[in-house]
Amino acid sequence: MDLVRGSTDEEIISDALGRAPDIQLGADHGRWRLCRWRQFVGSYTLPALPDPMFVVHIAGKPNVRTWERDGWSETSSLPGCATIVPSGHPTGWLVDGELDVVTLSVASTDLQRAPALDQFRRMRFAFSDPLGVALTRQVLGELYAPQTKERDVYVGALVDALKAHMMRGPVSASSADIPTAAFSSYRIHAIMNAILERPEASHHLEELAAQAGITPTHFCRVFKKATGVSPHQYVMRARLDRAQQMLEQSDTSMATIAEALGFTSQSHFTRAFRQFAGETPSDFRRRRQETLQ
Description:
Elements: H1 9-17, E1 23-26, E2 32-38, E3 42-46, E4 53-60, E5 64-66, E6 81-85, E7 91-95, E8 99-106, E9 124-128, H2 130-143, H3 149-168, H4 185-197, H5 205-212, H6 216-227, H7 231-249, H8 254-260, H9 266-277, H10 281-292
Antiparallel strand pairs: 1-2, 2-8, 3-7, 4-6, 4-8, 5-7, 6-9
């Protein structure tokens, strides 16, 4: 392991990005540190971090990738996703567009008591985490409110809850068998994964709400609270992210891509892609090809 001795996770990231976080706070006992990072674009290599880190993708373009053995990952992170970066492992990152993330570093000594210790031994990239995102958004909302003693206590409790959520590990599949009339985060988690796996499917609002066991109106409200976007926007972002991969990695025609990803027409695909990426699909493919030459 090539650890940067005497440095915290946040100091290492600041060196790599060339800038400090927008917000930084930590517990008095030093067992967690939370930061918000925004508006950086490019590719970055991070040395091995001394402590494991929980990364929550809050907002920005859904085109963040990590370096794998032979190149950038096919999977990309979207708003509403989380990533666990283990300690002791260098990582590579590609950020193609404005990004807004929150990082939570936890003292390695605390993980000796974590019930899901194995999840911190490897990289877990871009998994959907509605509860983690909801807790993180609540923390940020409080941090931009006027500072009071009560607010500081509340923020500390929220971050402790986020830390406990991180250390708990994935919810077991058996939890889906527990009947409940209330909204449960695992259902949104499953729906988000289904959209990411098959963005070309119809994903009608009524069907998604039925899977969650709530009304369409309530589903829209809780989905947006968890991800920051509406169900329709989430599906569209997943389709357009897949479209970028197809444009980069193949010579497939625009009409075929549009049809394969569930767009009503090639013109619909072109309009949506321009709004998403700021350029037409043809211009995007041409620019990428010129970059690779």
